[in-house]
Design a protein that fits this description.
The complex is a heterodimer of chains A (125) and B (519). Chain A has a domain of 87 residues: Helix Hairpins, CATH 1.10.287. Chain A has three helices and no strands. With 519 residues, chain B is mainly α. Chain B has a domain of 217 residues. The relative contact order of chain B is 0.10. The chains are: A mainly alpha (125), B mainly alpha (519). Chains A and B meet through helix 2 and helix 3 of A and helix 6, helix 7 and helix 10 of B.
Chain lengths: 125, 519
């Protein structure tokens, strides 16, 4: 089970990073979405995948016996999903507004904030 | 099978004794900005109340921070665990000298920016929630400094990040949208990498509480891929701190928003990356810091020198300052790379100095623009003839940023240079000195061209009626900057206590797990 997840996570990371290498904002955003899910699966896998024994503490013990299923990664992933989803929504709107204003989604052409031919500072007066 | 009340020993799971009233102060620096931020969002249209409410709330937060720092300096680290679940199961807030002092400096910077913003932020921007974003961002910043749980640290990172997006794009001008796109994507990538590293760390160590990690790391590190984890953390936090070569989002975006926003970003946000680096490497993974120290030292030297060379090539005052921020990050990373108490002390003291001075420099640029009508070194000129007072602030901040007496930059650099020579890396000391020289060149040229040069264009363009608000904001920051220069002892004391807690976290661990301290 762990091996399948590890390979899936690896593939997700590879696809995400490949898309992020693009010059086009929309492909970068898709890469970020896949990257976020790769991280969520990483948390899931890192927190031990098993369902053999449920996470219930026996009466005579203070902590979970080892080898039980781990409920914590799901809480972490839930937080991470909410955050990455809201950020993705914000980024989509931001990218669309930028495309409307700048007329391009090619990062090489997006030079409004950092113009190419900027005057050098004066050398004296 | 029912369990009778009273038959279960609750003390095995819960902190039973009530939190002392004074310890509630630990959550105050987060709670006040969050509550007031929510109120400000609710009264979004009543813009006349916004500035006063935000300033009052930040003032309250500042006093809570002062109280917290004073208590931490007297009693050592303080812990409050949410829901009273025994740590490591509940999320702990642990204030130590490092977190409390950084939160104090950041809140002071935010307060001054809020004062300055009264004249800088117009009504539409208020209606779109400038002050709400500001308060929520400060909640995130203070939360990041005070939390004692590494996943919670990630959450606070996201809280201040999303608020900073809001602040950055208020106004939706074309350069802002361009800058914000790069800022948002690269910072989101950085925090997601931080989350990846946290996930792996949790998988390896099985806990997220930082005191618990610090406690378990020495036994576990041989069995887990600790070096890989440390490298991931380094990459993620270096990106947040804008260290070379992952710094290009900063000069692309920091000059685009209003100056009150830029000042707060330039002063505070990169230092959270530095704080996180100090926390993870100084306290959680000291051995991995030794492993990576040469890499970090090279990154530090490259960051400070390439940063300041970038500043030499710029014409826009705000873009110059963006590059000066980057070179300061390099100086702090140099302190981190040394891995000694002295190195940490220098880095932490430099962080206090940098928060105040960079905020002040951005505000100075704003006042200069108000008086001279431009940010460009080509046209901004003749300020000494029209407003001699601005020259005083400009000169003091020039001295502070280049590390010359009597201002604040001198002592952290003295500590760092001595620490670098003591740990046998004189080349690192040399690069700090070279950066100081280049900073003086950069800011000296700014001073020469804007203050001393006779006015190059006729004076008709925008002259603001009264720069008094800007002057008082600058005064509020210049006083501590001057104090740090002429009477550095208390600041060095705080920084060295913070560094000692990082290097030897037994008091931090003892505050989270009292039974471990007794044993």
């Amino acid at each position: 089970m762990d091996v399948i997840f590890a390979v899936t996570v690896g593939t997700f990371f590879a696809v995400g990073f490949y898309l992020m290498l693009s010059r086009h904002i929309i492909r970068i955003l898709l890469g970020i979405a896949i990257f976020g899910n790769a991280v969520n699966l990483t948390i899931f896998t890192a927190g031990r995948i098993t369902r053999l024994s449920p996470p219930i503490i026996p009466l005579d013990m203070d902590v979970l016996p080892s080898g039980t299923a781990n409920p914590l990664p799901q809480a972490l992933i839930l937080t991470a999903i909410v955050i990455s989803f809201s950020f993705f929504a914000f980024l989509l709107v931001l990218a669309f507004r930028t495309y409307q204003e700048l007329g391009t989604d090619d990062t090489d052409e997006m030079r409004v904030a950092e113009p190419k031919e900027e005057d050098l500072p004066p050398l004296g007066y | 099978m029912a369990i009778e009340p009273g038959s279960v020993d609750l003390s095995a799971a819960l902190v039973l004794e009530p939190t002392p009233l004074a310890d509630w102060n630990i959550v105050a620096p987060v709670m006040i900005p969050i509550v007031i931020g929510a109120v400000l969002l609710m009264i979004r249209h009543e813009t006349r109340f916004h500035a006063g409410l935000a300033i009052a709330a930040l003032l309250g937060t500042l006093f809570c921070n002062i109280g917290l720092l004073a208590r931490v300096l007297d009693n050592g680290p303080l812990t409050m665990t949410m829901g009273r679940w025994l740590p490591p199961f509940g999320i702990s807030f642990t204030a130590d000298a490092l977190g409390a002092s950084m939160a104090l400096a950041a809140t002071l910077a935010a307060l001054v920016c809020a004062l300055y913003s009264v004249s800088d932020i117009d009504n539409p921007r208020r209606r779109y929630g400038f002050y709400g974003f500001l308060m929520l961002m400060m909640a995130g910043v203070n939360g990041a400094f005070i939390t004692g749980d590494i996943f919670n640290l990630y959450v606070w990172f996201e809280v201040f990040l999303i608020s900073s997006f809001g602040l950055l794009i208020l106004g939706s001008e074309r350069p802002q949208l361009d800058g914000a796109t790069k800022y948002a994507i690269l910072n989101l990538l950085g925090t997601t990498l931080f989350l990846t590293a946290t996930a792996m760390l949790y998988g390896a160590v099985g806990t997220l509480n930082m005191a618990d990690i610090a406690r378990k790391m020495p036994q576990l590190q041989a069995a887990i891929p600790a070096g890989t984890l440390a490298t991931l953390f380094l990459f993620a936090f270096a990106m947040k701190a804008a260290a070379f070569p992952v710094n290009f989002w900063l000069p692309a975006s920091y000059h685009t928003p209003r100056i009150a926003t830029a000042a707060l970003f330039g002063g505070v946000l990169t230092k959270i990356g530095i704080y996180a680096l100090l926390r993870t490497f100084g306290m959680l993974m000291p051995d991995q810091l030794g492993l990576l120290s040469t890499t970090i030292a090279w990154i530090a030297a490259a960051t400070m020198i390439i940063g300041i060379m970038g500043a030499l090539a710029q014409t826009d005052l705000r873009r110059i300052l963006g590059f000066v921020v980057i070179s300061g990050v390099g100086v702090m990373m140099a302190g981190l790379s040394l891995g000694t108490v002295e190195g940490f002390t220098g880095a932490i003291f430099y962080a206090f100095h940098s928060i105040l001075v960079m905020t002040a420099l951005y505000l100075l640029a704003g006042v200069m623009n108000g008086l001279g009508g431009s940010y460009s070194l080509r046209s901004l000129s003749g300020l000494y003839a029209s407003n001699p007072l601005i020259a005083v602030f400009a000169f003091l901040l020039l001295l502070a940023a280049s590390g010359l007496p009597p201002a604040s930059g001198l002592w952290p650099k003295v500590i760092l240079i001595r620490a670098a020579i003591d740990s046998g890396s004189p080349w690192l000391a040399f690069s700090i000195l070279l950066t100081g020289l280049l900073t003086m060149l950069v800011l000296g040229r700014v001073f020469l061209l804007t203050v001393w040069r006779p006015r190059v264009e006729p004076t008709e363009n925008t002259i603001i009626a009264s720069p008094m608000l800007g002057y008082s904001a600058l005064l509020l920051l210049s006083l501590p900057v001057l104090l740090m220069g002429v009477y550095p002892d208390p600041f060095i004391e705080v920084a060295s206590q913070a560094a000692n807690t990082l290097k030897n976290p037994s008091s931090y661990i003892g505050s989270v797990f009292p039974e471990a301290a007794l044993r």
